[in-house]
Amino acid sequence: MKTTISKVSNYLNEEVTIGAWLANKRSSGKIAFLQLRDGTGFIQGVVVKSDVPEEVFQLAKNVTQETSLYVTGKVVEDTRSPFGYELQVTNVEVIHESVDYPITPKEHGTEFLMDHRHLWLRSKKQHAVMKIRNEIIRATYDFFNKEDFVKIDPPILTGSSAEGTTELFHTKYFEEEAYLSQSGQLYMEAAAMAFGKVFSFGPTFRAEKSKTRRHLIEFWMIEPEMAFTNHEESLKVQEEYVSYVVQSVLENCQLELGTLERDIEKLKNVKAPFPRISYDEAIELLKEKGFTDIEWGEDFGAPHETAIAESFDKPVFITNYPAAIKAFYMKPDPNRSEVVLCADLIAPEGYGEIIGGSQRIDDLELMEQRYEEHNLTGDAYKWYLELRKYGSVPHSGFGLGLERTVAWISGVEHVRETIPFPRLLNRLYP
């Protein structure tokens, strides 16, 4: 019976054949241990010299790393293995021999591994991170589908900036100037006016010359937008969504979390509701923690976010930032116009902001005023202004950065390991 490693539990004490690659091996005089992977998981194949023809045992002893194989054997329980099963091998057939595979079990430098990212993805830890990423994506679709959101795909090529910043990638669009999208949010607002509750999931691009462990040039965003929804209601959706994703990973990625040696007790605590502090309170907290130079009106950097997060054992919302340091479309607090109805969700353990969200301006006159203040008077933003002209409603939304979320949940230090092929300030290969 031909099967995959992930499904061998269905064939306990039966003989199966698996197409696999040799991740590693060790052997004594009479037994060879083959560490096999097939993309669905990892399993050990045990080849006993006395149980197989001599040519099979010699092949098993001499097979090289990352050679592709068909391995036949009996599935048996193995309580010593995190996976719980191993293969008592009866036959090995080489599909293609791998010679001088560059990533060996020894230590390699980060740049070497990044240059060989196309091969590094095969390793056990990188495999685990990608499986967790996949589960976060699966759980995202599950959550929003259950909550009656409609998936809408915004364009990647746009004629304007989503937030009026200069950190954009320019390109020629025939005779016009165009940009790679830095957010699908403006388009999701249009979609929300048509479908009520929507979400997008797609790549975004920031021409930000940053080398920190939290930054990528190309990354993926989940961006929900909700009509007839105020800021408080949006916060509840955000914390329920993040809780759902974390609990889904805990339930469905136990092997992967174990491979990464992730402290899951910290993740078990991630359940709604989340604590909230205002920007004002965050300033005071930072001063108490020794950041005496921070002044009201300044944005928070990574050290500030980490210090704030250390005071809580769950993700924490920082609400009501000054309008001057936030995007033009955020709705002012009706009781205090110098701050806006917004929040950043800060992950625990130093992983920083994973969500930014706000209630959007729905008043045409105020949005026209913002256009003038931010020099957005050209035709590129005309369509966005019309959303306030034809049946405007209160609406809110947010964006979650996938890679930062993967890094936090999996416990990986740098976001470059949370995306299959990272684009960094000095890296466009492979």
UniProtKB/TrEMBL annotation:
<keyword id="KW-0648">Protein biosynthesis</keyword>
<dbReference type="InterPro" id="IPR004364">
    <property type="entry name" value="Aa-tRNA-synt_II"/>
</dbReference>
<dbReference type="InterPro" id="IPR012340">
    <property type="entry name" value="NA-bd_OB-fold"/>
</dbReference>
<dbReference type="InterPro" id="IPR004365">
    <property type="entry name" value="NA-bd_OB_tRNA"/>
</dbReference>
<dbReference type="GO" id="GO:0016740">
    <property type="term" value="F:transferase activity"/>
</dbReference>
<dbReference type="GO" id="GO:0006421">
    <property type="term" value="P:asparaginyl-tRNA aminoacylation"/>
</dbReference>
<dbReference type="GO" id="GO:0005737">
    <property type="term" value="C:cytoplasm"/>
</dbReference>
<dbReference type="GO" id="GO:0003676">
    <property type="term" value="F:nucleic acid binding"/>
</dbReference>
<dbReference type="InterPro" id="IPR006195">
    <property type="entry name" value="aa-tRNA-synth_II"/>
</dbReference>
<protein>
    <recommendedName>
        <fullName>Asparagine--tRNA ligase</fullName>
        <ecNumber>6.1.1.22</ecNumber>
    </recommendedName>
</protein>
<keyword id="KW-0963">Cytoplasm</keyword>
<comment type="similarity">
    <text>Belongs to the class-II aminoacyl-tRNA synthetase family.</text>
</comment>
<dbReference type="Pfam" id="PF01336">
    <property type="entry name" value="tRNA_anti-codon"/>
</dbReference>
<dbReference type="GO" id="GO:0004816">
    <property type="term" value="F:asparagine-tRNA ligase activity"/>
</dbReference>
<dbReference type="InterPro" id="IPR002312">
    <property type="entry name" value="Asp/Asn-tRNA-synth_IIb"/>
</dbReference>
<comment type="subunit">
    <text>Homodimer.</text>
</comment>
<keyword id="KW-0067">ATP-binding</keyword>
<keyword id="KW-0030">Aminoacyl-tRNA synthetase</keyword>
<dbReference type="Pfam" id="PF00152">
    <property type="entry name" value="tRNA-synt_2"/>
</dbReference>
<keyword id="KW-0436">Ligase</keyword>
<feature type="domain" description="Aminoacyl-transfer RNA synthetases class-II family profile">
    <location>
        <begin position="130"/>
        <end position="430"/>
    </location>
</feature>
<dbReference type="InterPro" id="IPR045864">
    <property type="entry name" value="aa-tRNA-synth_II/BPL/LPL"/>
</dbReference>
<dbReference type="GO" id="GO:0140096">
    <property type="term" value="F:catalytic activity, acting on a protein"/>
</dbReference>
<dbReference type="InterPro" id="IPR004522">
    <property type="entry name" value="Asn-tRNA-ligase"/>
</dbReference>
<dbReference type="GO" id="GO:0005524">
    <property type="term" value="F:ATP binding"/>
</dbReference>
<keyword id="KW-0547">Nucleotide-binding</keyword>
